[in-house]
Design goal:
Elements (H helix, E strand, L loop, with lengths): L2 H9 L6 H12 L5 H14 L3 H12 L14 E5 L7 H11 L4 E5 L9 H6 L10 H11 L1 E5 L6 H12 L6 H14 L4 E8 L8 H17 L3 E8 L7 E2 L1 H12 L9 H17 L3 H13 L2 H12 L4 H5 L8 E6 L4 E6 L1 H10 L16 E4 L6 E2 L4 E7 L5 H10 L1 E4 L9 E5 L1
Parallel strand pairs: 1-4, 2-3, 4-5
Antiparallel strand pairs: 5-13, 6-9, 7-11, 8-10, 8-12, 9-11
Bound molecules: uracil.
């Protein structure tokens, strides 16, 4: 087989066989197929797409390029994945609800990159919390507590790691089969029998339109089903930040408030987190989705999910006294941003707000950066609010006062003020089951 023939075939819109896809992935992972041929191949996929069968096959070859986790010794294993956004702390709320409902949540999570945060960074903002557990510790904790969240092992889908880095610099990220196979290769390798996806669209999301988010969600659901997993997906809005607190420690603080019974006015975080947990319960126990959602709601309302959260944090070494006594670390510098004018805030450039949080130090511009865990933004308006000139819109936090000016400029540029009110657009557009 020759790589040039595979590129030519894909360039003409023809489908590749399993042997051809295996040849590409094995050869590329071993370094025998050069980056220039792999980039030409990815570009051909961007233009010509892939069939569902090719996408499922590509996913499998990437999944098998590294370690796979066998969770079959645990009952009702369930995982969730969000395509990422701003203030998206759903895992911190959804995972303890699901565990309190009897699921085994054995989760590998990523670190944040660019304007989107990562669950591992958020958890590490809790003093003492360990995101690196041995395999024995991980399995024992899931068996005992029902939930453990660790960083991805170095050898999880290495073919995807190499290919994703290449796609990032060759403008070939935005192809639905390439994204679906990339995400699903890691999710399948992590081993859960039920997987619920939260595919976001909008100004703070990777997919900008609902149509593209739905296509991606359907592609990922098909891939998961082709590999025998129980799958569901929600298509949800990231037109506004999902929660009013953005940044690692700030998002843990927000999660704790929600677990204690609060619901930030106008923001979608509580609704989406409960729906995701409901979908996980319904997939795993064969309930209808309304019953799954009702159970999730009850687990949150009764305080069982909060107790499970504390048990989980304690099990992974986190100091729960800082949570119970509201003593999470705070950034030493802050600034209040006042509204430059009056109007209705009917839309935000949500990616811009995420970038403002990054400028404060909360995120990573490159994989090597170390985020300032206390940095971030607390919004004091809700989506679609009317604000007056001079009214506080947000507080910016950082450990470095020199970062406040640029972050403030970026933050204010991300807001649009309208002359009249608007109808809120739907938060959860669709469920794919
Ligand atoms: N996230 C991934 O893991 N892979 C992609 O291709 C895009 C987003």
């Amino acid at each position: 087989m020759r790589m040039i023939d595979l590129i030519r075939k894909k360039k003409r819109g023809l489908s590749l066989t399993e042997e051809e896809i295996a040849y590409f992935i094995d050869g590329y992972t071993r370094g025998e197929i050069p980056d220039y041929q792999a980039s030409a191949f990815c570009m051909a996929v961007c233009f010509c797409g892939m069939t569902d069968e090719e996408c499922a096959c590509l996913t499998e070859k990437m999944m098998r390029s590294g370690d796979t986790v066998d969770l079959s010794s645990l009952a009702h294993t369930a995982d969730k994945h969000s395509t990422g956004g701003v203030g998206d702390l759903t895992s911190l709320v959804t995972a303890p609800i699901a565990a309190a409902g009897g699921l085994s949540v054995a989760k590998m999570s990523g670190r944040g990159l660019g304007h989107t945060g990562g669950t591992v960074d958020k958890l590490e903002s809790i003093p003492g919390f360990r995101t690196a557990l041995t395999e024995e510790e991980f399995f024992a904790q899931v068996g005992r507590v029902g939930v453990a969240v660790v960083g991805q092992t170095a050898n999880l889908a290495p073919a995807d790691k190499k290919l994703y880095a290449l796609r990032d610099v060759t403008d070939t990220v935005e192809s639905i089969p390439l994204i679906a196979s990339s995400i699903m290769s890691k999710k399948l390798a992590a081993g859960a029998e039920s997987i619920v996806l939260d595919v976001k669209f909008g100004s703070g999301a990777f997919m900008k339109t609902p149509e593209d988010a739905e296509k991606l969600a359907s592609a990922m659901v098909s891939v998961g089903r082709a590999h025998g997993r129980k799958m569901a997906a929600l298509v949800t809005s990231m037109e506004f930040p999902l929660a009013p607190q953005i940044g690692n420690t700030l998002e843990v603080e927000e999660a704790v408030r929600i677990l204690r019974g609060e619901d930030p006015r106008g923001y979608g975080i509580r609704t989406v987190a409960v729906r995701l947990a409901g979908e996980m319960l319904s997939l795993s126990f064969g309930l209808d989705p309304e019953e799954g959602a009702a159970r999730a709601e009850e687990l949150l309302r009764s305080g069982k999910a909060y107790q499970k959260f504390l048990e989980w944090i304690r099990a992974q070494g986190g100091d729960v006294s800082v949570i119970e006594e509201d003593r999470l670390p705070k950034a030493p510098y802050s600034r209040t941003v006042l509204s430059p004018r009056a109007g209705w805030i009917n839309r935000t450039d949500t990616e811009g707000i995420g970038m403002a949080a990054c400028l404060l130090g909360a995120g990573r511009m490159t994989k090597e950066d170390n985020p300032d865990l206390t940095a971030g933004i607390v919004l004091s308006f809700a989506p679609y609010d009317r604000v007056e000139k001079g009214q506080p819109l947000a507080a910016l936090y950082s450990s470095d006062p020199a970062r406040l000016d640029d972050a403030e400029a970026r933050f204010t540029d991300s807001l649009t003020f309208s002359e009249s009110p608007a109808e809120p657009s739907p938060l959860i557009l669709k469920a794919i089951r």
